[in-house]
Amino acid sequence: MTTQADGMTSTDGNSWMLELISGVRGVKHVVVLTSDGLMKVRTDQTPLDVADKVAAACAGLVALGMGMSREFGNSESIRQVMVEFDGGFLFVRGAGDGSRLAVVTETVIDPALIAQQMQAQVLMIGERTLGTERITG
User: Fold this and answer.
1) Which of 30, 36, 125, 132 stands the most exposed, by the fewest C-beta atoms within 10 Å?
2) Distance between terminal CA atoms of the chain?
3) What is the phi-psi region of residue 126: left when phi exceeds 0, alpha when psi lies from -120 to 50, beta otherwise?
4) pLDDT digits over 62-86, tens only?
């Protein structure tokens, strides 16, 4: 199993947990990240350096979304963040206590299908399986 601490470049032994979403046409990368922006699980087709970049960027986007929700919504919780960029999309949603599921896609996808498959992926695995401990301090 690859962890961020060991620096190895092999795939994560828990990548099987992400097969439902990684098999959707147009999906390039799938990463589970901690609330601190550290990569926890990645798919076989996602290199470690890419997974680390996705995780760090998503942590920032989630923080921004929480700030917007706190200012303009009814709480600081967010359901999903979606970014469309030239070349694809990034989707981020909760995947258990303190973790997020991030999916990077090509442009030719159905955003509703990706969101639906992400929800199904989290439900199929169970939020406790993907959950990460929140680091306090």
Assistant:
1) 36
2) 27
3) left
4) 999 999 999 999 988 888 999 999 9
